[in-house]
């Protein structure tokens, strides 16, 4: 599959088409495409996404990221090797100190403070997605959980990089360009690449090949939930 990836993805996320993740991404087929090329994403790149839709997304994404951080923290409990514990702790630190911090700062630019974010009820899409990853955090092992978290981590990096290199993306005057910069920047793409490598290595140790049908089922569920997350922000409007 490596030859089908654009050069900018191969250069920045070389693990995207390798190992277990590469197989999951490939076998998700149209569902993965519907996620990373969603109309929400395309409108964001063109700078024509409705402002109210984007604000709804920001609020719900914050609420989801809190669940994502909690699920990621469970990976420390699930780990049975110090290496895995360190990797999980690094992910949590990256989320709490990096992405959530960036997210809060970005929300403030749009007039949304932390109290308002936390007071907003979660939508059905947010509840469904957060509930699914927390279920995998409690009921599955470390590999199950890491697979459930992978679509979000890697997908946003692919979305950011694709928009950054898409000739159709508007830069000047695009109110969402800073969002694209965040998810295509070195900090976030570095977290994503490390996460993909961690998943692929974990698969080798945890019997990913033998468990592949169930892992694919869970991965495809999260991919559909991701696409539904974009759709929910637009449908509410």
UniProtKB/TrEMBL annotation:
The record's listing under CDD domains reads:
TenA_C_ScTHI20-like (cd19367)
Record domain Thiaminase-2/PQQC: where: 31-235
Q: Which superkingdom does the taxonomy of this entry point to?
A: Bacteria
- PANTHER family, per the entry: BIFUNCTIONAL TH2 PROTEIN (PTHR43198), SI:CH1073-67J19.1-RELATED (PTHR43198:SF2)
Indicate what this protein is called per its UniProt record. TenA family protein
Source species of the chain? Endosaccharibacter trunci
